[in-house]
Amino acid sequence: MTQLHIAARSVELSALTKRFGRTTAVDGIDLALDGGVVGLLGPNGAGKTTLLRMLATVLAPDAGSLRLLGLDPARPDERLELRRRLGYLPQAPALYGSFTALELVDYVAVLKEHTDRDRRAQECTRVLDLVGLGDRRNSRIRALSGGMRQRVALAAALLGSPDLLVLDEPATGLDPEQRLELRSLLADTATRGTVVLSTHNTAEVAALCQRVVVVTAGSVRFEGTPAELRGLAEGRVWESPIADPRATRSWMTADGAFRNLGDLPAGVAPSPATLDDGYFLAVRSGR
Ligand SMILES: Nc1ncnc2c1ncn2[C@@H]1O[C@H](COP(=O)(O)OP(=O)(O)OP(=O)(O)O)[C@@H](O)[C@H]1O
Q1: Which of 3, 58, 179, 276 is the most exposed place for a label (fewest CB within 10 A)?
Q2: Interatomic CA distance for residues 94 and 116, integer angstroms
């Protein structure tokens, strides 16, 4: 008889919940992700960082369960293995200013138990080269620009080619060229594992993500491909010289015309929808 192997998903969340006092930051999220780059979109305070911190095992849920790479982070033995196979870039990484870029990355490598000294040195050099900081490896963190510091933290997250890479607004502070580099770096990582990132930039999602999850008030409002998110707004967008009062939302565009979102009025021709339009609709559906 053929043995049926069902591979563990990279991320499996069931009724995942996290509260801070009276605030429910993550409110019973069910989600299964496996492979590729997944973009997490949502307004300020939606719960993205809280969710990512739980995926990175730095925060434990109050209720519900999560399995990451088939492992249970609540179990100390499984958590250790998981942390070796996980990379995390926090939202505002606190870096020791007096360390050099190399010392900082090496320190994280030690914490991740890369015990072989020579291999650790090679790995640190590799990840610093990957983020384009090979020539600044001996610069002190405090002497680096904001974007370079972000790249040092990214290098630390890439140590050991993680199977699950969790990135909180990774493009913050990067210039356009560095953003392009980041995209190819993450696309490459996603060929071997799963990348989950938060962003406020729908263009980033369109360029990089195979899947997108829209979160508001701690709940998932949409999960699907970027094309499906855009599709939500297809036939629900139109332009006009002044804001149309029939729209649920209107805003002025760069050319001075108004873009309207809502039920298309009779006799009005729809405009092609964008990912932003789909995002606005997904966010509003939760209100
Ligand atoms: N450590 C904490 N203590 C108390 N409240 C918190 C804490 N962390 C988050 N919160 C609250 O939980 C909610 C979700 O916050 P979170 O940082 O996860 O949102 P976010 O989607 O990442 O926001 P942003 O886009 O602004 O980064 C917010 O209401 C926030 O104030």
Answers
A1: 3
A2: 26
How much is the ipTM here? 0.97
Please write the tens of the pLDDT for every residue from 90-133.
987 788 888 999 999 999 999 888 888 999 999 999 999 999 99
> Which residue ranges of the chain lie beneath pLDDT 50?
1-6
Nearest Cα to Cα of residue 230 among 197, 267, 202, 269: 202
Q: Taking Cα atoms as reference points, which of 215, 257, 222, 210 lies closest to residue 238?
A: 257
Ligand 1 center–CA 44 separation, angstroms? 8
The protein residue whose alpha carbon is closest to atom 4 in ligand 1 is 20
Q: Ligand 1 center to residue 214 CA distance, Å?
A: 16
